[in-house]
Design brief:
Elements lengths: L23 E6 L5 H12 L3 E5 L15 H14 L7 E5 L11 E5 H4 L13 H5 L19 E3 L7 E6 L2 E6 L8 E3 L9 E4 L21 E6 L7 H9 L8 E6 L10 E5 L7 H14 L5 E6 L2 E3 L4 H7 L4 E4 L2 E2 L7 E2 L1 E2 L5 E2 L4 H5 L5 E5 L1 E2 L2 E5 H4 L16 H11 L4 E4 L5 E3 L21 H8 L4 H5 L5 E4 L2 E5 L3 H14 L23 E3 L6 H19 L9 E9 L7 E4 L5 E6 L7 E3 L2 E3 L4 E3 L6 E6 L6 E3 L2 E4 L1 E8 L2
Parallel strand pairs: 1-2, 1-3, 5-8, 10-11, 10-13, 11-12, 15-23, 16-24
Antiparallel strand pairs: 3-4, 6-7, 9-20, 13-22, 14-24, 15-22, 17-21, 18-19, 20-23, 25-26, 26-34, 27-28, 28-37, 29-35, 30-34, 30-37, 31-36, 32-33, 32-35
């Protein structure tokens, strides 16, 4: 065993042996096949070490967290040694835990004849394992040397700050910083059992991964549980992404806790709405228990509504890892916030791990054993019906539901894994989410820019930015896609919901000077407190197009006026010829000609050029002063809406 604070023992000589795997036998005590034991076996098999587990299936005669019951280990070890007593060159590596108090423990290695001399002087039935190995308890002094520099053995309790993971050539080793050594056997004893160890790429082949069947009907049944526990942006996107999962819907069941229902094509749907008043932890217990009670439920997939699941193959990729509990890495945009902890403090709370940033930023890629996961994870139904059969997984002391879940899992010696082998998606930021508007997502361009772009920016915008979808219907007038249908609809609905349209006359107290030369019936962006978000939109999406289409001009994307105009035959059908007070103007069509209205369009008088069928979600961009004198053509039926910005006035 190795621990730098352990009092030194008498300097017995240490015998250095040259041995092959054939001359080494690894013994350990395990009364059940826990995940920790299975990982121990895999790591030994990787090096072709022979393993013999002692006590499998036997009852533990004591509390495994105290010294009582340690006599079972001694009896099992003695019995095993008797079977190999005639093998003179056999080296025994016995691994166990370390117990505080200055005793040897954790692990020891030596020739079998040295073990045979370890005879206790008193009954060891109720004595601790470490007491059995203490010099005062043995009848005679034997050839034992303490590996206090951790050249072979490394205990983690009390030494977590001294041990880091060393990554080289796709392999990982533990390094003891105190003595600059590379121990061979790592012992996660005491509270460090809940810590993290890598199941990295170099060891990935150790875990058998059965291939998924090719036929949809042969795929395992998965219960998908959705939890909407607070006001959350982009819920429509959330469910669209679930629908895009590459998994047959007939093999999916759906449980939703909150007020949103999206089912139809799934095998079954259970909805628990806000009127039922089920608390967060209780709802999560309900979801897990639905899978636990259904023998046909092979996997339980829990997803919180603040997860942006952008990888359609996520469910298949997680299943293929063949873990009892596994989560895909999720992070917040531009931050190190994620859905896992790399380590825990002694009192069970967050602690920073040495490689947390590398895992979050995917500089180190693999499958990682972690002490805490949240927001999204996959659990085997068989685990829910065995190791995790307790029906209250989400309560533990005064912890919140996520921490309670992880504490209960650790308590059952079930490992939690996190994979960052793919980019699965990200977490939404809910910190500044406003709920005072009709369409609150419009205001999320700062907090959740990736989701804002997906929901509101036209799918062909990037092609336009590459010059592939830009038209020039009139000289120096450019036409390209910018908004989705949803963006157009929600902006119109937001304005109509606000309802305070201008009168369309020259007197206008909203602008400097209070007088408008060419008035329209409109609502300004600042009237709905949207000017900051609109400026962000101009900077992120209009400015890059401007610099490509007008080479040599670099816009500040500043504006004095940005507004939505409403044209109606019986209100204001058209607009007189005019110049705009801008370097260039952006004019976005917010609804569809021939469907929502008839007529309309824009005519540039100098060029006698008209655009009579503006496309919904497409913008016209043209110079504002001097050259592009223009007018709004009459709307003859229905209502026409456009969003106008006078940029760089």
């Amino acid at each position: 065993m190795g621990h730098r604070d352990t009092p030194p023992h008498p300097p017995f000589p240490f015998t250095t042996l040259s041995l092959s795997p054939d001359n080494l036998l690894v013994l350990t005590v395990a009364t059940k096949e826990s995940e920790g034991f299975r990982r121990f076996k895999r790591s030994a098999q990787f090096f072709n070490y022979k393993i013999q587990a002692l006590g499998l299936g036997e009852d533990w005669d004591g509390d495994k967290e105290t010294s009582a019951g340690g006599g079972l280990k001694v009896r099992l070890l003695k019995k095993a040694l008797e079977k190999h007593a005639d093998k003179e060159n056999l080296v025994i590596l016995f691994t166990d835990r370390w117990v505080p108090g200055g005793f040897l423990g954790g692990a020891l290695s030596g020739k079998i004849e040295e073990y045979s001399r370890m005879r206790p002087s008193q009954d060891i039935r109720d004595k601790g394992w470490s007491l059995y190995l203490s010099p005062s308890f043995l009848q005679e002094r034997i050839n034992i040397t303490l590996d206090h520099r951790c050249r072979i053995f490394q205990n983690l309790v009390g030494a977590l700050d001294e041990v880091v993971l060393k990554f080289e050539m796709g392999h990982v080793r533990a390094r003891n910083l105190a003595y600059d050594t590379l121990p061979v056997l790592i012992h996660g004893n005491g509270p460090t059992k809940v810590g993290r160890a890598p199941s990295h790429r170099g060891c990935q082949g150790l875990t058998p991964v059965p291939p998924l069947p090719l036929q949809d009907e042969a795929l395992p049944v998965v219960l998908v549980s959705v939890f909407i526990e607070q006001p959350t942006p982009f819920l429509s996107l959330f469910f669209q992404r679930l629908l895009r999962l590459h998994y047959p819907r007939k093999q999916l069941r759906l449980f939703i806790h909150n007020h949103v229902k999206h089912g139809g094509e799934y095998k079954s749907v259970k909805l628990v709405g806000p009127e039922v008043r089920v608390a967060n932890a209780d709802a999560r217990n309900m979801g897990a228990d639905l899978c636990r009670q259904d023998r046909g439920c092979t996997y339980y997939f829990s997803v919180d509504a603040d997860v942006a699941l952008t990888e359609p193959k996520t469910l298949r990729l997680l299943i293929e890892q063949n873990k009892n509990v596994i989560a895909p890495l999720m992070t917040r945009h531009g931050r190190l916030w994620s859905n896992f902890w790399g380590a825990m403090s002694a009192d069970g709370y967050y602690a920073r791990s040495e490689d947390y940033v590398d895992i979050v930023q995917r500089r180190r890629v693999g499958v990682w054993n972690v002490p805490y996961i949240s927001n999204i994870y996959l659990i085997k139904g068989s685990a829910l019906r065995a190791e995790l059969q307790q029906t209250d997984l989400f309560h533990h002391s005064k912890l919140d539901a996520d921490m309670a879940f992880c504490a209960n899992i650790r308590q059952q010696d079930v490992f939690m894994f996190l994979t960052n082998r793919h980019t699965f998606g990200h977490l939404l930021s809910l910190d500044s989410y406003q709920t005072t508007h009709l369409h609150n997502d419009l205001w999320e361009v700062f907090s959740n820019p990736e989701d804002w772009k997906e929901k509101y920016i036209h799918e062909n915008y990037t092609r336009a930015l590459a010059g592939k979808l830009v038209e020039m219907p009139c000289p120096d007038v450019y036409w390209f896609p910018i908004f989705t249908e949803t963006a157009c609809d929600e902006l119109v609905e937001e304005m109509e919901h606000y309802g305070q349209w201008s009168l369309g006359d020259n007197k206008d107290n909203r602008i400097q000077g209070g007088y408008e030369n060419v008035p329209t019936i409109d609502i300004h962006m600042n009237q709905i407190s949207f000017e900051r978000e609109w400026h962000k939109f101009l900077v992120e999406y209009i400015a890059p197009m401007t610099e490509k289409l007008y080479p040599g001009y670099y816009t500040r994307a500043q504006f004095d006026l940005a507004f939505v105009v409403r044209y109606k035959p019986d209100e204001q059908p058209s607009l007189m010829p005019h110049h705009d007070a801008s370097t260039f103007t952006v004019n976005i069509a917010l609804n569809r000609v021939g469907v929502d209205y008839e007529g309309g369009g824009c005519r540039f008088l100098r060029y006698n050029c008209s655009i009579r069928a503006p496309r919904k979600g497409w913008t016209l961009m043209h110079p504002g002063r001097l050259t592009h004198y223009h007018e709004g053509l009459p709307t003859t039926k229905g209502t026409r809406y456009i969003a106008v910005s006078f940029v760089d006035p």
